[in-house]
Write a structure and sequence with these properties.
Elements (H helix, E strand, L loop, with lengths): L6 E5 L3 H7 L4 H10 L1 H10 L4 E8 L7 H25 L2 E5 L7 H14 L6 E8 L1 H18 L8 H5 L12 E4 L18 E4 L9 H12 L10
Helix pairs in contact: 1-2, 2-4, 4-5
């Protein structure tokens, strides 16, 4: 039997469909989804999970209706304000990964402040993937390596470890478990390099309804997996 996963990555899917089933607008579902982050983080920490990485907004999500994108950005701003107190009260480190250059200045400022204030907290590490796409991350990493090679900073043969150090997740362990809510069974351009040996768990439960018991079910399923990393036991 496998131990509790050290790092769990989650694709927060189904907010809009959850709201539609209740006869409410999609924005109602996104609000409920944002409110679900803190209780799941608390449950994860109580279970012994050290790292949680949430896919909150992808590079492709900009193609959604302008009103929905605007609501998501507003919810993000509200979440960042609350997250300072949540991080402080729970000794929780918060990180944000992705290409933040497209965000409004007030959001990038809030992100920088939150990351700085929580950087020394030693409890759960919560990472939020925002304006994130794995292909974009890899391209950015390659371009950064090219720049460093030209300047002489990078003057050795590139290895997997060196490449990983150029990724947004350079100070995180690779995910042990990926959870995707709401029934879809694809990665959607999420942590493609990092999830080479991650165990996948798909549930039809939409993210706003994904509670502590659902998280426990996912972890129990993970603990019964036989992780061989390409080898034989």
């Amino acid at each position: 039997m496998t131990d509790v996963p050290k790092h769990v990555a989650i694709i927060l899917d189904g907010n809009g469909r959850w709201a539609k089933q209740k006869g409410m607008p999609r924005t109602y579902g996104h609000k409920a989804g944002a409110d679900n982050v803190e209780p799941i983080c608390r449950a994860a920490y109580d279970m012994g999970i050290k790292y949680m990485t949430f896919y909150a907004f992808s590079t492709e999500n900009w193609s959604r209706p302008a009103e929905e994108v605007s609501t998501l950005m507003t919810l993000l701003g509200d979440f960042l304000k609350k997250a300072k107190k949540t991080a402080r009260d729970n000794n929780m480190r918060v990180r944000v990964i992705g290409d933040l250059s497209r965000l409004e200045d007030k959001l990038t400022k809030s992100i920088a402040e939150l990351m700085e204030e929580s950087k020394d907290y030693t409890g759960l590490t919560l990472t939020i993937a925002l304006n994130y796409g794995s292909r974009d991350e890899i391209v950015r990493a390659v371009n950064h390596m090219i720049e460093d090679a030209k300047s002489g900073i990078l003057n050795e043969k590139v290895t997997e470890d060196i490449f990983s150090d150029y990724l947004d997740t350079k100070d995180l362990p690779d995910p042990d478990l990926l959870i995707r809510t709401s029934g879809e069974q694809r990665l959607s351009n999420y942590l493609l390099w990092q999830m080479a040996y991650t165990e996948f768990y798909f549930t039809k439960v939409p993210w706003p309804s994904f509670d502590e018991n659902e998280l426990k079910a996912a972890v129990e399923a993970y603990k019964n997996r036989d992780r061989r990393y390409g080898g034989i036991r």
